[in-house]
Amino acid sequence: PDPMPLPRLGRGNMGGMQSLALPLGKGPHQVGCADVMVGHTRQGLFLRLFYPCLPREGAERPLWIPRYEYCGGLADFAHRSRRWCAPLLNAAIGSCRVPVSWNGPFKPCSRRYPLIIFSHGLGAFRTLYSSVCSELASWGFAVAALEHRDHSASATYFCPAEAGSEEWIPYQRVPQGQKEFYFRNKQVHQRAEECVRALRLFEDIDSGKSVPNVLHQDFDLSVLKDSIDLTKVAVMGHSFGGVTAVLALVKEPSFRCAVALDAWMFPLENALYPEVPKPVLFINTEKFQTPESVAKMKRLSSRNSQTKIITVLGSVHQSQTDFTFLTGKLLSRIFGARGTLDPYKGLDITSRAALAFLQRHLNLEEEFHQWDDLLEGIGDSVVPEAPFCRPNL
């Protein structure tokens, strides 16, 4: 199946006011975020960093869709005409903001924060998982949400060395005549390598190297020195990002575990499954997985007793993205974003299961083990093992 259901636009009215009510993190820390771009070529990195921050009066909140170009990219990804779909998306969600402090003052911590590298799904970009990233940051993690440059983001860009210039990297479909597996497999390897490069970036900062942020923002990366615990690093992602996280465990020994949200296992070659050395938490939705994908997850869980598979009932693939918090009929219809489960409850289950798993495998001193039952699929709206799969059509 296509790993992200394509929007179905209905005709008729706008379906009432659209709004994006992203939840505030429930943890003890306020959350800041900053965009970081390193290097002037495609081989550099682009990410949005979520981190615990100090309270600041009148803090600015960042836009959820950072630039108009991303609306055009979403239209392309959804097989819609840019001419009418991009302005419609911009009118509907262009002014939505994320409830975090933009470039907020980093909160120093004697214990250092564990690090999560986050990989987005096909057709997404760095901001579309702000709810789960800011939730985890509110519990004391630094979360680096990558924007991949393998043509799987609906749009992204880099800044060549000439002052003020930008080069955009559009979303690319599987070229005609090419087998999808080979195209996607090449992408998943590039994505996993970008996850490893993100870890190297934090290692460079920690070693005292000067790392200039090409975006010239108010956030000084040197404040992260001695603040990130590089012995406690996990990798996480959704859909295409979920399988990216699994592959990153093979490529980088410093990643101690992975959290895979509704992972799209199709792009990973079979030879690599025996190579996955660390535990994975698979958090599936009820409506997305195929028997083939689930068989691959079970292959990993049969090899490692710490690998867990749970399914969140009443959820759909988009339930693990910010789209699930869109209100208004039009956009819920465009993005197929709502299951029957309340989105706030879905986020709670996902983040608490992830926190319990991360405590166990990063050896954290927190109280996240209070949610250990979720890892066994015990609780309201969650079941152990994989969902009942629809046949792969």
UniProtKB/TrEMBL annotation:
<dbReference type="InterPro" id="IPR016715">
    <property type="entry name" value="PAF_acetylhydro_eukaryote"/>
</dbReference>
<keyword id="KW-0443">Lipid metabolism</keyword>
<protein>
    <recommendedName>
        <fullName>1-alkyl-2-acetylglycerophosphocholine esterase</fullName>
        <ecNumber>3.1.1.47</ecNumber>
    </recommendedName>
</protein>
<feature type="active site" description="Charge relay system">
    <location>
        <position position="317"/>
    </location>
</feature>
<feature type="active site" description="Nucleophile">
    <location>
        <position position="239"/>
    </location>
</feature>
<dbReference type="GO" id="GO:0016042">
    <property type="term" value="P:lipid catabolic process"/>
</dbReference>
<dbReference type="InterPro" id="IPR029058">
    <property type="entry name" value="AB_hydrolase_fold"/>
</dbReference>
<dbReference type="Pfam" id="PF03403">
    <property type="entry name" value="PAF-AH_p_II"/>
</dbReference>
<keyword id="KW-0442">Lipid degradation</keyword>
<keyword id="KW-0378">Hydrolase</keyword>
<dbReference type="GO" id="GO:0003847">
    <property type="term" value="F:1-alkyl-2-acetylglycerophosphocholine esterase activity"/>
</dbReference>
<feature type="active site" description="Charge relay system">
    <location>
        <position position="262"/>
    </location>
</feature>
